[in-house]
Amino acid sequence: MDTKEEFDVNQTLAEVVKSKDIRLWEGFSVLLVNAAQEFSFDYNQVMKFLPNKQEQRYFKDLLQLSFALYQHYRLTFIWVDRLKKQLTAGDNAFVQKLKNCISRGELIHIGQKSFLPDRLFKMFNNYFKKDAEKAKRLNQKYEELSLEYSLSQLFSPKQKELFKKKLHGELLNKTEREYYSRTVKKKVSALANADLHRLAQKLMVS
Prior knowledge:
- The structure is a single chain.
- The chain has twelve helices and two strands, in the order ααααααααββαααα.
- The protein is mainly alpha-helical.
- It has two domains: about 130 residues, no CATH class; about 50 residues, no CATH class.
- The protein has a two-stranded antiparallel ribbon with strand order 1-2.
- The longest helix has about 40 residues.
- The protein starts with a helix and ends with a helix.
- The relative contact order is 0.07.
- The N terminus is likely disordered.
């Protein structure tokens, strides 16, 4: 069974609201943006999981706190803009009040809970740090695959193996050294030719 199908992010957000756990509430903005990026967040679905009027109020307050935090970081999301159109004048005033509290480092009040913006910053910064590291790893993997593809276009599997051995400083046996000198080295010399490299780039853009 697909575990991804079993996991309902909207129900999870609702459970976070119901918990009234300050630590979970501090991470609500991160959970929300992550859910929205996965195209899983549905405002109406979360509300269905919160039949209690007070819990619905907490959800809306946490949502507006998230909007204020995103504004502080100058982050814009289409889904946020869409939801903000549903806010009343009072809601917008509350978002602005929360934004001011965040900017000044003042105590934030949601329901009966109070917490400082520093905790929000820490949670949010950790999320984006991990996100940036993930992007870096994906970029490195792409570069590795791109290099592997390019090598496959130039060398046979055996030639590619010897090329990598030589590159990593591994010792070659007598047969490998002879084969490397006879075939691979010539291709490597051609690759190292600056004029040939320049002409190849010129052909790629022409």
